[in-house]
Amino acid sequence: MEDQGIVHLYLQRSQQALLETKNKYGAYCKAIARNILSNYSDIEECENDTYLAAWNAIPPNMPRKFSVFLGRIARNIALDKYGYNTAKKRNREFEVILTELEECLASPNTVETEYEAGEIAHLINHFLYTIDEQTRNLFIRRYWYSDSIKNISKMFNMSNSKVKSTLFRTRNKLRDYLLKEGINL
User: Fold this and answer.
1) Residues 6+ apart with CB under 8 A from 123
2) d(Cα 102, Cα 99) in Å, to the nearest integer?
3) Domains of the chain
4) Does the keyword field hold Repeat (predicted)?
5) Cβ contacts of residue 160 below 8 Å, gap of 6+?
6) Inter-axis angle of helices 149-156 and 133-143, nearest 10
7) Is 174 in contact with 127 (CB distance < 8 Å)?
8) What separation in angstroms does the CA of 58 have from each of 26, 82, 83, 95, 129?
9) Is 10 helix (H, G, I), strand (E, B) or coil?
10) pLDDT tens digits for range 33-45
11) Distance between CA atoms of 29 and 47, rounded to whole angstroms?
12) Considering the entire predicted model, what is its pTM?
């Protein structure tokens, strides 16, 4: 079923919308959650919570791109779950990702940095469109989808060291760009 048809089912409050969403995007939502969480039951819970959140969000929201809408919901739910679980256990791969980005982003410990978060997001998006497409895709796969270096290497047919060095250089460029734009890190 096409995305517009699925959204239409949500607008009609038809429970068929949930089944169609699961059939078309279940693996996608699980993949996003799996890259952040390490426990299978947490991943399944995240997937189901994504469907519930979509149900509650449509209406009033009308997603332009349904897959991106679901991906964002799944990612945010997985990040919330990760934060909840952090005291108990850690997903080593996701810890590495957070550590990699630490140097580029300010710590959200003040009201000012919370306010700047929207500006920083805008600047990061702008920065991503100033770099070549492959580098942008590598960056997004790593820091949005939380893919491992190994998986990214396979996806882009590159060596692990090439992926790591590209990401390292891109993070440095991002840090320099943010500093140039007046964001104190």
Assistant:
1) 177, 178, 181, 183
2) 5
3) 3-85 (1.10.1740.10), 94-180 (1.10.10.10)
4) no
5) 149, 150, 153
6) 150
7) yes
8) 18, 25, 26, 33, 30
9) helix
10) 998 888 889 999 9
11) 6
12) 0.63
